[in-house]
Request: fold
Amino acid sequence: MLRVGMMTDMHYADKNPAGTRYYRETLAKLADASENLADAKLDFLVELGDFIDAADSVETERRYLKTIAKPFAEICDDRHYVLGNHCVDTLTKAEFLGGVGQEKSYYSSDRGEMHFVVLDACFKSDGTPYGRKNFVWTDANIPPEELEWLKSDLQGTKKKTIIFAHQRLDNEGNHAVKNSPAVRKILQEAGNVWAVFQGHSHANDYREVAGIHYCTMRAMVEKSGLANSGFALLEIDPHGTLKINGFRDQADYQWS
Ligand SMILES: [Zn+2]
Reply:
């Protein structure tokens, strides 16, 4: 049994709330998540993107990142960060990844009998990586080189696989990866993909497409108060069930 902590769309920033987003409250919500996951003996912790929110200068945004990265790191030694559009708004990918101590923006790894893939859809249609406010958030793409890598990575393993992404791979529209049909085709043809976890649209959502579970996780930043937070503990039995234990406003799921 593997235990994975998961949270998304934390949007931490030292700035006043805007609409339904309570940026400063993320620190208290993260402390609450830390407490709730303390006894879970996590194998690893994954953050599905939009870890921070935009600042008007690189310096300030680096400060936001430093502030949230520290308590997040205290939850688990083994951590994985998916790039969200807000992570690389002012910062470059190299600056964000340097700030959290992660080498690559997309990669895979094995844990026991499971295979895990982190994807990066923060690329413009022309293949340019996001950074320094050079993009519009609706133009999210997985470029040809990453698609090729994904295809051979999945073909290279017989293990059951779970995919982590920020922008959505299960639908069309503003919150979707523009070339999501091409990505889904690769996932379906691989035949070993069990589930895809994604963030970006901030509300609980779930869809099954061609036998693969696509689960959109609740954003931590939405609404005021701990009761309106959202995070999850995945319990993964490679030969049994994949259970999503949702905390606060995060929905529960169980798939076999
Ligand atoms: Zn977000």
